[in-house]
Amino acid sequence: MMNKYSRLEEGFTLTETVIAVFILSLGSLLLFIGGQKLFSSFNAVREKQIFLRESMQAGMLLKDSFNEIQIPFWEEYPESGSSNKLLELPYLNGNRDSFLRLSFGEDGLSVERNDELQIVYKNLKNGQFEPVMVDEITAGINIVFFDAHGNAYEYKLLFGSHSLRYGDDNE
98: which of 45, 79, 92, 131 fits an S-S bond (Cβ 3.0–4.6 Å)? Predict the structure, then answer.
């Protein structure tokens, strides 16, 4: 007769089962944490790509619009309102009553021309406008976009009647 508890009996002991469950749980936990980190990295890259795409689109649109701004040199540069978040530029196509209005708000960067339907870039919520000075005359503006992590992306836009000189004048 065989002993009731012989080693030839098939199956696992309670200790072996507990160890196997522990190892599987640890592996599942590591996979879950790794998956979360991978997913959050993917989302961060995706958000950055969307931000860069919209800032490039806005920069290209505004470059074309700024070529149409022709502020006479005797006019003063329009002041930007409320901590450089709002800018209204007259003299669109040389007409004093035509304007280009740019503003950063909760909805993003809005661009409006002559009371037409405005364009809103929803991922460009934070930024500022700074004048570009050439020979003590405002020749355009810098638009600085800030992403959700505080990184700055800058676009220099010049009015249509100005151009910047690069390099030394003696060259």
Answer: 92
